[in-house]
């Protein structure tokens, strides 16, 4: 089964962000909401417990043209309980290589 791009999404454009945050209820939901509000789709999400919080690796792809990953990174960084957001080098890995967390689980 192939993944077909929706709208003006460029094929193969997947960006990976690593987000360190406190382990607080609702933080993951706020991160997901900011991503969607800024015109990006969450392709996959991986959460791992680390000392004093959680580390989230999220793969996103744009829903249209002229979407800046740096703008998205700054918006997520401004959220309460988020310690830092690191943009990984461009990744063309398929989301199937990640452990998926469905939207219904986040909300």
From TrEMBL:
Origin species: Parvularcula maris
Q: Which residues form the ACT domain?
A: 16-92
Q: Which Gene3D superfamilies match?
A: 3.30.70.260
Residue span of the signal peptide, if any? none
State what protein this is by name. ACT domain-containing protein
* Pfam families listed in its UniProt record: ACT_5 (PF13710)
User: Mind telling me which PROSITE patterns this protein's record contains?
Assistant: ACT (PS51671)
